[in-house]
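Sequence design from tokenized structure. All designs in this work follow the same two-part layout: the structure record, then the generated sequence. An example of the structure record is given first.
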């Protein structure tokens, strides 16, 4: 076994800290990180070993580590194209955050430069590894609930939050300032832009592609420049109806500090209903949560036994791709359709019309 020499770039994406565990992973040698200006305190907060160098720029990191083999692009969405270009030009394999780019021309360029360079580019979509998703697919494929008729998914969270402040920025989230629609002072790049997982799960479980997309927004609960309440519905090409709600529906006033994360509602809640001709499947997809009243405090709590192995599974897949030529479970080409559907949802909000894919 030969460990992969890898670095993490920028570290200002909320998931960056999830990969700091590579410093103790025998399959990887985490040689360095670059830290977006203003985020150095976070790199230290996330308890990286002092022996791992922390650079103020990608350029400085690359100059000190010419033997690097791969990078994790853990930056805000508007920096992804630039970092993919440089990494591909250096022949480095790439592990990308869940939104490579919302600009479909930029996205196509990413496909082109990585394929031309012959490097792996795997996209992070951790919900594909949840046991509940795998079990739901087994049940659907077995015919136990009959012919699937509809899939409903919610992905509730809250924002802004200290570990992802850029998500409230239209430039850093969507890529630039684009109004939601005429007469609306808000910009693209909020709740819809933050939750590709449920779009991806619909594709995975239905075994089909998006056919139509319709979306609309409600007035915001909080004072941010982007949308926080949004709903998307439509039909897949095989006829299955879908309904998606990726809203920032949980007020951060209820879960603003880590010590209070156990108070209902949880910081993140993901649910799914699948209706078939013979039955209905109902699932909590995130963290296997359960709810109870604490008799000592009379507080209504949400707790979770955690989801051990999810993050390691994706990095293990990445290792197999780099070292043994395996195909990424989610590559740029496969993920493109999910991003295109999310862009179509924003276009539907802008026009007020159903978008035909």
């Amino acid at each position: 076994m030969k460990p992969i020499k890898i670095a993490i770039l920028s570290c200002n994406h909320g998931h960056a800290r999830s990969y700091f565990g590579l410093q103790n992973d025998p399959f990887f040698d985490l040689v360095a990180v670059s830290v977006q200006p203003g985020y150095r305190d976070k790199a230290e907060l996330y308890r990286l070993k002092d022996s791992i160098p922390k650079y103020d720029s990608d350029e400085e990191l690359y100059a000190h580590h010419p033997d690097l083999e791969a990078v994790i692009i853990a930056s805000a969405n508007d920096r992804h194209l630039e970092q993919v270009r440089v990494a591909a030009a250096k022949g480095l394999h790439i592990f990308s955050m869940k939104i490579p780019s919302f600009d479909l021309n930029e996205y196509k360029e990413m496909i082109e430069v990585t394929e031309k360079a012959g490097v792996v580019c795997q996209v992070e979509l951790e919900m594909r590894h949840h046991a509940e998703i795998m079990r739901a697919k087994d049940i659907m494929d077995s015919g136990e609930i009959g012919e699937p008729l509809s899939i409903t998914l919610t992905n509730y969270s809250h924002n802004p939050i200290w570990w992802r402040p850029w998500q409230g920025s239209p430039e850093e989230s969507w890529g630039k300032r684009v109004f939601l629609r005429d007469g609306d002072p808000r910009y693209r790049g909020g709740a819809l832009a933050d939750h590709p997982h449920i779009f991806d799960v619909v594709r995975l479980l239905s075994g089909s592609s998006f056919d139509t997309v319709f979306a609309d927004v409600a007035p915001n609960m909080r004072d941010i420049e982007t949308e926080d309440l949004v709903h998307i519905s439509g039909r897949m090409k095989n006829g299955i109806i879908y309904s998606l709600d990726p809203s920032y529906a949980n007020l951060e006033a209820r879960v603003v500090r880590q010590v209070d994360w156990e108070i209902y509602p949880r910081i993140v809640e993901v649910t799914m209903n699948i209706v078939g001709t013979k039955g209905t499947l109902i699932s909590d997809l995130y963290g296997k949560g359960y709810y109870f009243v604490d008799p000592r405090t009379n507080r209504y709590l949400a707790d979770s036994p955690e989801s051990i192995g999810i993050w390691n599974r994706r990095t293990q897949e990445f290792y197999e791709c780099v070292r043994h030529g395996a195909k990424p479970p989610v590559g740029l080409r496969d993920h493109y359709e999910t991003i295109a559907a999310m862009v179509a949802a924003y276009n539907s909000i802008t026009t007020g019309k159903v978008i035909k894919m």
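The chain has two domains: 4-119, 129-309+339-356. We note this feature because it recurs in several other targets discussed in the main text.
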